[in-house]
Amino acid sequence: MRFCPGVRMGEETVRIDEGAKPEISELLCTGCGICTKKCPFEAISIVNLPDELEGEKVHQYGVNGFRLFRLPYPEEGKVTGILGENGTGKSTILRILAGELVPNFGSETGDREEVLRRFSGRQLYNYFSELYSGRLRVVRKPQHVDALPRVVTGSVAEVLQRVDERGMWREVAERLELENALGRKLSSLSGGELQRVAVAAALLREADVYILDEPSSYLDVVQRLKVARLIHELAGNRRVVVVEHDLVVLDFLAERVHVVYGVPGVYGIVAGARGVRRGINAYLRGYLREENVRIRGEELKFEVRPPASGAGGELMLAYPRMRKSYNGFTLSVEGGELYRGEVVGVLGANATGKSTFVKMLAGVERADEGALESRLRVSYKPQYLSASFTGTVEELFAKLELTGDSFFESELFRPLNLERLAQKAVRELSGGELQLVAVATCLGREAEVYLLDEPSAYLDVEHRLRLARVVRRVVEKREAVGMVVDHDLLFIDYISDRAMVFSGVPGREGYASKPVDMRSAMNSFLRQMEVTLRRDPETGRPRVNKPGSVKDREQKLRGEYYYS
Ligand code: ADP
Ligand code: SF4
């Protein structure tokens, strides 16, 4: 209030009613932006929205609060994907489409009659009139599956039986590899198991609308594709709405997508429906042509890397054949070589020893047979992150002597937009925020070998894409070696020069192949899963072929599970 030119002129541009939060009058504010610079907490954002959004506001959370413009339309018989950065309103959209939140169009409360009036003459009118009159049955899989044990009691088998309206709970449990978990209570399940129970429980119900919020979180790459296939089959000719950050999964699942863009926490705009291929391509390009909006400075381009890349450079590290056993689990690793400047992707199901292998390279675990001898400096980001540091992100970076390092500033701090986290306490970061900080500290240290275990976990699509660029650039610029375990196939495909594949029986025995060229690695990995991938001609990104399609059959016949 002291700095606002309006207030200084005697206007009520900013005012505080007794006992209430301060309010900015959106009518009187000129948008000069002085208050946003003066506020030490960066609590204020002043945004000039384009005029064409006039009358398109669907929901607003209170005065000066987040607002959502436009809505996606869940078409009958189609899977509609929603794609966008966190904080731009995706969960709000799902709550509206599920009927849990009645949009208020910017007024204080939502009113169903008003919703019908606003959408009259539009496709959404039928949707809402059926929804509000109880003719649409909606089933929703929540985003935070870890909260399920608190509200759902009983064993997995009991839960699935209770919701089963299709008479196929055993079959669904088997297809999602839940047989061994059937007798267990929900509270004893891992995140990945809970996710599969939640997806199964949603699909076992007979509904008109299935709303699935992030079905691939916590799942390994094999399970992601299984879940996607099952959703495809069981959703049949209903309406399905899915929010998903793994672009290979989304591409496979959805037929049409709505990109949601805006400023996280400030506003979100739902772009018009696009076919899934065009929608994802536009998102990767960072430009929505029809809307004439740039959503990202840079485009993400996929290169088809020649088979020989990586190998042929300077040998950095050769590791021997190794073995490691824990109670009941044995990992056998084929000896391999890593070359300067390359990123090696690591693919495989959960519980086949990927993290154990990475820990052996990091020197955190010792092999029982085959010792690794190397004097290289290794920087390692573990799969499970702990936020033990008491202090802010800025203090953490200062303690690790990263602050002021020009490489860190230009290659990590700025591209990952860490400024906005600087003042936050490390212990209070969300999963995704902690992940970004952990990756930045790992890559910020000077080292010859960077080991990243599941860096894309908890990240939204936008941060995965940014991170993919960052990982490649850092490894190239530092002339180091990167080894990255991840379950997001698009992410792995973008960053990797070569890859290694883990196979075996999860939880019992694992085998690690040596790093080989992408094409051979992906071929052997995809063959295990009987999935084929082709490249999108426009962006070069990998796409899953629909099972049984002409391309799928042709590629399998030729033994070409990757590329085409
Ligand atoms: P997304 O699902 O894309 O991450 P959300 O729909 O959860 O986005 O949230 C969009 C923004 O709306 C959030 O950043 C938050 O600021 C705001 N918001 C969400 N729910 C509420 C609520 N119940 N009350 C006030 N603000 C909210
Ligand atoms: Fe005042 Fe608006 Fe300028 Fe902020 S942006 S200082 S509220 S006029």
What features would you describe in this structure?
The protein is an alpha/beta fold. Among the domains are: 5-38, no CATH class; 315-516, P-loop containing nucleotide triphosphate hydrolases (Rossmann fold, 3-Layer(aba) Sandwich), CATH 3.40.50; 530-564, no CATH class. The strands form six sheets. Strands 14, 15, 17, 18, 19, 20, 21, 22 and 23 form a nine-stranded mixed beta sheet that branches. Strands 3-4-10-9-5-8-7-6 form an eight-stranded mixed beta sheet, with helices on both faces. α4 (112-118) runs antiparallel to α5 (123-132) and α7 runs parallel beside α9 (191-203). The longest helix is centred in the last third of the chain and has 18 residues, at 461-478. It binds adenosine-5'-diphosphate (ADP) and iron/sulfur cluster.
List the defining traits of the structure above.
single chain; 564 residues; Rossmann fold; 9-stranded mixed sheet; 8-stranded mixed sheet; 25 strands; binds adenosine-5'-diphosphate; binds iron/sulfur cluster
Summarize the structure.
The protein is α/β, with parallel strands linked by helices. It contains 20 helices and 25 strands.
List the helices and strands and how they pair.
Blueprint (H helix, E strand, L loop, with lengths): L4 H4 L5 E3 L5 E3 L9 H5 L18 E4 L6 E3 L9 E6 L5 H8 L14 H7 L4 H10 L5 E4 L6 H4 L4 H8 L5 H7 L15 H13 L5 E5 L7 H15 L3 E5 L3 H7 L2 E8 L3 E9 H10 L1 E2 L4 E2 L20 E5 L2 E5 L2 E5 L2 E4 L3 E5 L6 H9 L15 E4 L11 H7 L6 H8 L17 H14 L4 E5 L7 H18 L2 E5 L3 H7 L2 E8 L3 E4 L3 E2 H12 L3 E3 L6 E3 L5 H9 L6
Parallel strand pairs: 4-10, 5-8, 5-9, 6-7, 7-8, 15-22, 17-20, 17-21, 18-19, 19-20
Antiparallel strand pairs: 1-2, 3-4, 9-10, 11-12, 13-16, 14-15, 21-22, 21-23, 24-25
Helix pairs in contact: 4-5, 7-9, 10-11, 17-18
The chain binds adenosine-5'-diphosphate and iron/sulfur cluster (SF4).
